# Entry
Amino acid sequence: MARDLPDRAFNFKQAFPFPGVVLVLGFQGEGKTSMACWVMDEYHTRSGGSIGGAVYRAPKTMAKMLPDWVTRPQTLQQTPENAVVLYDEASQLAHARRASSKGNLDLANLSGLAR
# Structure
């Protein structure tokens, strides 16, 4: 018996809207950061370099591992426009017990900027 099944082909821009906010959850070591870096690279490549990248509050040790087109903003004011911003380990900075912390407020502001 044949059934009509919906088209389940992967659509990059539907899965990762730009501008938009994508929250990636999972257990430690499952590749969340790697996937986020891939998304950042895909947007940069697909846009011909017009979409940049940023790893928010990345440690200095990470700088030498990042491509030249990826910045390391330490404040919201340093966050580039028209860029995919990776906010890694957000749960550490935006924990519910620190609801009014600077890190949590920055995360809320980044979400607002994406709109």
